[in-house]
């Protein structure tokens, strides 16, 4: 029997969060979905235009670091679950401003955990679900895969803050008995991705004939997952994952940055009817990022085995859909690349 449920999704105006909110609002009409987001530079309600009028959806603007606000918010609504995505998420920004990452990712998470303890006391079915990254595991050599038992070894202020929040979630489970699940996912790509991250940055730069800044020698290797496949995994873990467990989520899709960039260039030349090789000429190698992890790769066999999840699209299909989305949504791109983004872009790429 379907009982009404109140679900809090934090960071729902961001890239991944907006796909999770849409999926939950549309798939579970008998739930009420609360989207709590501070609307930082990365949060954008335009991402959710299509669900903003839905009867089972509410947006609340607020900062997870504000303890009084969070406690008051939790005392108004009896939540059945929290899916926590709100975070500072960009590694390059964490290098220039680590404290804001500690603030949101660590303090904000602990605030939510404290409020969740109270919620769990009143509701035995309550669950806290923390969305995290594979970057907490550090870097791999040329071979091997991250599994759920790989020791944490974060190398950037971003991954250190996410590792810390993962530890707090786990500790609240052990110390206070808070029912929780955690998932650690590889790099996402897809519609609504803020164009400071590699794939949307490069799509945007190719459209505008701007250089494509590839770090170091371009041999950094990442595993890529289409964002809607991540949202599906989150849905499955939230509903069927075991309390106290961690699940790794990945695309079985490893790419060196330089090869990915060339693939993107080829696809964009075709889409824009440009001569073969036009976009590749925009590739420029730039000074390496400090503390740059060589390779991330995920063993996602546990979620496949236990929950039956696997990615639904190939990388080429996902990239094509992503490129089409950016070409069809130039207005979105223009909005998010005005203001603060322009300043950041100039500082980062035109020093
Ligand atoms: P994002 O930067 O696009 O979105 C983050 C959202 O959180 C924004 O809407 C922002 O306004 C909100 N937010 C930031 N600080 C806040 C605060 N103090 N209070 C309330 N809201 C706040 O990030 P994303 O790429 O969608 O990532 C979402 C989550 O998934 C993060 O926790 C991230 O660590 C994790 N993750 C991301 C990836 C990826 O490839 N993008 C991969 C694995 C895990």
From TrEMBL:
Record key words, sorted: Lyase, NAD
UniProt xrefs under PANTHER family: DTDP-D-GLUCOSE 4,6-DEHYDRATASE-RELATED
Pfam families in the record: GDP_Man_Dehyd (PF16363)
Family designation: Belongs to the NAD(P)-dependent epimerase/dehydratase family. dTDP-glucose dehydratase subfamily.
Record-level GO BP terms: nucleotide-sugar metabolic process
EC numbers, comma separated: 4.2.1.46
UniProt-recorded Gene Ontology molecular function terms: dTDP-glucose 4,6-dehydratase activity
Enzyme class: lyase
Record's catalysed reaction(s): dTDP-alpha-D-glucose = dTDP-4-dehydro-6-deoxy-alpha-D-glucose + H2O
Segments forming domain NAD(P)-binding: 8-322
Protein name as it appears in the record: dTDP-glucose 4,6-dehydratase
Cofactor(s) listed in the protein's UniProt record: NAD(+)
Organism: Flagellimonas taeanensis
InterPro entries hit by this protein: dTDP_Gluc_deHydtase (IPR005888), NAD(P)-bd_dom (IPR016040), NAD(P)-bd_dom_sf (IPR036291)
């Amino acid at each position: 029997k379907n009982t009404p449920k109140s679900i809090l999704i934090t960071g729902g105006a961001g890239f991944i969060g907006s796909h999770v909110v849409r999926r939950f609002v549309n798939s579970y009409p008998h739930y009420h979905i609360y989207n709590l987001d501070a609307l930082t530079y990365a949060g954008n309600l335009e991402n959710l235009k299509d669900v903003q009028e839905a009867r089972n959806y509410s947006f609340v603007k607020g900062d997870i670091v504000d303890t009084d606000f969070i406690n008051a918010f939790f005392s108004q609504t009896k939540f059945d679950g929290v899916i926590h995505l709100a975070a500072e998420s960009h590694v390059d920004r964490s290098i220039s401003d680590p404290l804001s990452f500690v603030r949101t990712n660590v303090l904000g998470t602990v605030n939510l955990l404290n409020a969740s303890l109270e919620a769990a006391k009143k509701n035995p079915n309550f669950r806290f679900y923390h969305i995290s990254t594979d970057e907490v595991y550090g870097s791999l050599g040329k071979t091997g895969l991250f599994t759920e038992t790989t020791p944490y070894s974060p190398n950037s202020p971003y991954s250190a803050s996410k590792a810390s929040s993962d530890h707090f979630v786990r500790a609240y489970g052990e110390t206070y008995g808070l029912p929780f699940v955690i998932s650690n996912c590889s790099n996402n790509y897809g519609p609504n991705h803020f164009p400071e991250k590699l794939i949307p940055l490069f799509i945007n730069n190719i459209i505008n004939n701007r250089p494509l800044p590839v770090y170091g020698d371009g041999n950094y290797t990442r595993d890529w997952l289409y964002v809607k496949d991540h949202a599906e995994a989150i849905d499955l873990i939230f509903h069927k994952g075991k309390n106290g467990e961690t699940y790794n989520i990945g695309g079985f899709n490893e790419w060196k940055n330089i090869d990915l960039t060339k693939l993107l260039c080829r696809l964009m030349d075709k889409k824009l009817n440009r001569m073969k090789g036009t976009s590749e000429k925009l590739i420029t190698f730039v000074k390496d990022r400090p503390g740059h992890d060589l390779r991330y790769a995920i063993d996602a066999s546990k979620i496949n085995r236990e929950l039956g999840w696997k990615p639904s699209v190939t990388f080429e299909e996902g990239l094509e859909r992503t490129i089409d989305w950016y070409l069809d949504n130039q207005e979105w791109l223009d909005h998010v690349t005005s203001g603060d983004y322009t300043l950041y872009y100039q500082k980062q790429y035109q020093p």
